[in-house]
C-alpha cells in the first residue's frame, strides 16, 4: 500500500531520493513467513520505515543530498539501520534532505527540494524535510532523521507530524554521515506519539562502536507514551522563546496548549533562560567549525566524485576541482566560515567565545530544570514558508531554528508535537517539549497527553 502511495504522489512531493520496492517487499514477506510459522516478532516487525539519506545502508546509494557522494554505496550499515532491519522493519527507501543536513527547507539538496504535502508551494522544513513530508503524505508510517540544530523537530512542526531529538549520545551516530559531531543525534519521526516512542526504543541505546554513546539504558519512552498523564508535572514556559518574530497563529496555538496542559493538571511556571538569545550565534560558529573538519574527507581521492583526473593533473588540482564541483553553496559557505573561525588568529575570539556561550546555555537549562520537569516553547517561529522565500537570505533561513538550537547545544532531550494549524494560513504548528538529558520519557508524557 505504501509503495503504491509513493508511486501515486511522490512525483509531486519528492520526499524520496531512492525507493527499494523489491527488497522492501522481500523484507515484508520474510516477516510474514515468520508470523505464519508462529515465531514471535517485535511490535514494529513488518512496518515500513523511510530512512533519511544521511544513514549508511549497504543496499542503496547514500548521497547526503550532495553531488560529491552521488551514487556512493556504503560498505556497511549504520547501527540504527542495522537495528531497524534486525527488528523486522521494512526499509522503503532513502529520503531527501538539505546537502549534508545543512538547511531548514531541503532546498540545498543537490537533487531538488521536497514539497510540503499541505501546500506544494511551501517548504517541508529541513534538513529532514523528506522524512517529514513522506509521513505527512502517508507515503510511510515511520521515518528516521538526524537533528543537529532542529532537523527533526522543525520539519515535524511544519508538516504536522511528531519528531524527537533524543538525548545526545543515546542513539548511535555510527554510520551516520557526520555534520557537526558534538551536536548530531539520530531520532524517530512518526505521525503519532506512540509510534515515535516505539521507533525511538528500537533505534536507540548504547553502541560500543560510537565513542560518544552513553553506556546507560534508555528511559522507558514507550511506557511514558502510554501513560499520557501530566498531573502534577511542572511545566516551564521559556520567556525567551516567543514574542517578537513569532507568527500570531503559532503563538495563539501555543498559549492554548499551555492552558490545556494546566487544565489537565500540570503546574505552569514561567522561566527565563537569558543566554538563549545568543544560542543561534554560538551554533553558527560551533557547527561550521565542526563541519569544516568533518567535510575535509570529501577530497575526490578516497570516494565519491572525482573531477579533472586526466592523468596529468596534480592531486591538489583534482581535489580542488572535485570539491568545487561536488559541494553546493551552503556547504562551501559553512566550510569557509568554520575554517575561518578555527584559524589561529581568530580561534579565541570566535570558536572559544562560542564554546563559552554553549556552557552558559547548558547552565540556563540546569537552572530552569531545577524549577520544573520540562520546558516548552513553539517548535518553529513560523509555519512553512514558500519555496524560494529564504534562499537568498541565509540569516532568515538560519532563524528557522531559533527554538530548536538551544537543546542541541546542551545535548538534552526535546521533541516536537503537532499543535493544530495557524488561523492565518491553515498550516501546521508545532509544540516543543524539552527535558533533561536521559529524561526523554518526559517529552513523550506531555506529547501523548496532548494527542
Ligand atoms: N537547520 C539547521 C542548520 O542548517 C539544522 C540542521 C540540522 O539539524 N541538521 O544547521
TrEMBL record:
<feature type="active site" description="Acyl-ester intermediate">
    <location>
        <position position="151"/>
    </location>
</feature>
<feature type="active site" description="Charge relay system">
    <location>
        <position position="127"/>
    </location>
</feature>
<comment type="similarity">
    <text>Belongs to the amidase family. GatA subfamily.</text>
</comment>
<dbReference type="Pfam" id="PF01425">
    <property type="entry name" value="Amidase"/>
</dbReference>
<feature type="active site" description="Charge relay system">
    <location>
        <position position="52"/>
    </location>
</feature>
<comment type="function">
    <text>Allows the formation of correctly charged Gln-tRNA(Gln) through the transamidation of misacylated Glu-tRNA(Gln) in organisms which lack glutaminyl-tRNA synthetase. The reaction takes place in the presence of glutamine and ATP through an activated gamma-phospho-Glu-tRNA(Gln).</text>
</comment>
<dbReference type="InterPro" id="IPR036928">
    <property type="entry name" value="AS_sf"/>
</dbReference>
<keyword id="KW-0067">ATP-binding</keyword>
<dbReference type="GO" id="GO:0050566">
    <property type="term" value="F:asparaginyl-tRNA synthase (glutamine-hydrolyzing) activity"/>
</dbReference>
<keyword id="KW-0648">Protein biosynthesis</keyword>
<dbReference type="InterPro" id="IPR020556">
    <property type="entry name" value="Amidase_CS"/>
</dbReference>
<dbReference type="InterPro" id="IPR004412">
    <property type="entry name" value="GatA"/>
</dbReference>
<keyword id="KW-0436">Ligase</keyword>
<comment type="subunit">
    <text>Heterotrimer of A, B and C subunits.</text>
</comment>
<keyword id="KW-0547">Nucleotide-binding</keyword>
<protein>
    <recommendedName>
        <fullName>Glutamyl-tRNA(Gln) amidotransferase subunit A</fullName>
        <ecNumber>6.3.5.7</ecNumber>
    </recommendedName>
</protein>
<dbReference type="InterPro" id="IPR000120">
    <property type="entry name" value="Amidase"/>
</dbReference>
<dbReference type="GO" id="GO:0050567">
    <property type="term" value="F:glutaminyl-tRNA synthase (glutamine-hydrolyzing) activity"/>
</dbReference>
<dbReference type="InterPro" id="IPR023631">
    <property type="entry name" value="Amidase_dom"/>
</dbReference>
<feature type="domain" description="Amidase">
    <location>
        <begin position="1"/>
        <end position="443"/>
    </location>
</feature>
Amino acid at each position: 500500500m505504501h509503495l503504491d502511495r509513493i508511486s501515486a504522489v511522490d512525483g509531486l512531493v519528492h520526499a524520496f531520493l531512492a525507493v527499494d520496492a523489491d527488497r522492501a517487499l522481500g523484507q515484508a514477506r520474510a516477516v510474514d513467513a515468520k508470523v505464519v510459522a508462529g515465531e514471535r516478532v517485535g511490535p514494529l516487525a513488518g512496518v515500513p520505515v523511510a530512512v533519511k539519506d544521511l544513514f549508511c545502508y549497504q543496499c542503496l546509494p547514500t548521497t547526503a543530498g550532495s553531488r560529491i557522494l552521488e551514487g556512493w554505496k556504503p560498505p556497511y550499515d549504520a547501527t540504527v539501520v542495522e537495528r531497524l532491519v534486525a527488528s523486522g522493519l521494512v526499509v522503503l527507501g532513502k529520503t531527501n534532505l538539505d546537502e549534508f543536513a545543512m538547511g531548514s527547507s531541503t532546498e540545498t539538496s543537490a537533487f531538488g527540494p521536497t514539497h510540503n504535502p499541505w501546500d506544494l508551494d511551501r517548504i517541508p522544513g529541513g534538513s529532514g524535510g523528506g522524512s517529514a513530508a513522506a509521513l505527512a503524505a502517508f507515503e510511510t508510517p515511520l521515518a528516521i532523521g538526524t537533528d543537529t540544530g532542529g532537523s527533526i523537530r522543525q520539519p515535524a512542526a511544519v508538516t504536522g507530524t511528531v519528531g524527537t531529538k533524543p538525548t545526545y549520545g543515546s542513539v548511535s551516530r555510527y554510520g551516520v554521515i557526520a555534520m557537526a559531531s558534538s551536536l548530531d543525534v539520530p531520532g524517530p519521526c512518526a505521525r503519532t506519539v506512540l509510534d515515535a516512542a516505539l521507533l525511538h526504543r528500537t533505534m536507540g541505546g548504547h553502541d560500543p562502536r560510537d565513542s560518544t554513546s552513553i553506556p546507560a539504558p534508555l528511559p522507558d519512552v514507550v511506557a511514558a507514551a502510554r501513560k499520557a498523564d501530566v498531573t502534577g508535572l511542572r511545566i516551564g514556559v521559556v520567556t525567551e522563546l516567543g514574542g517578537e518574530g513569532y507568527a500570531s497563529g503559532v503563538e495563539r496555538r501555543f498559549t492554548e496548549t499551555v492552558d490545556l496542559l494546566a487544565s489537565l493538571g500540570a503546574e505552569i511556571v514561567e522561566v527565563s533562560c537569558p543566554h538563549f538569545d545568543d544560542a543561534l550565534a554560538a551554533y553558527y560558529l560551533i557547527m561550521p567549525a565542526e563541519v569544516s573538519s568533518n567535510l575535509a574527507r570529501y577530497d575526490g581521492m578516497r570516494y565519491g566524485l572525482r573531477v579533472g583526473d586526466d592523468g596529468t593533473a596534480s592531486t591538489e588540482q583534482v581535489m580542488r576541482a572535485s570539491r568545487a564541483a561536488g559541494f553546493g553553496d551552503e556547504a562551501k559557505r559553512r566550510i569557509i566560515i568554520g575554517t575561518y573561525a578555527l584559524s589561529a588568529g581568530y580561534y579565541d575570539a570566535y570558536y572559544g567565545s562560542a564554546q563559552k556561550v554553549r556552557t552558559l546555555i547548558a547552565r540556563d537549562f540546569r537552572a530552569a530544570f531545577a524549577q520544573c520537569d520540562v520546558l516548552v516553547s513553539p517548535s518553529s517561529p513560523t509555519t512553512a514558508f514558500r519555496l524560494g522565500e529564504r534562499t537568498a537570505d541565509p540569516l532568515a533561513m538560519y532563524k528557522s531554528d531559533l527554538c530548536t538550537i538551544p537543546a542541541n547545544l546542551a545535548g538534552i532531550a526535546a521533541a516536537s508535537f503537532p499543535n493544530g494549524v495557524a488561523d492565518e494560513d491553515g498550516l501546521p504548528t508545532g509544540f516543543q517539549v524539552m527535558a533533561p538529558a536521559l529524561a526523554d520519557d518526559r517529552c513523550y508524557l506531555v506529547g501523548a497527553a496532548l494527542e
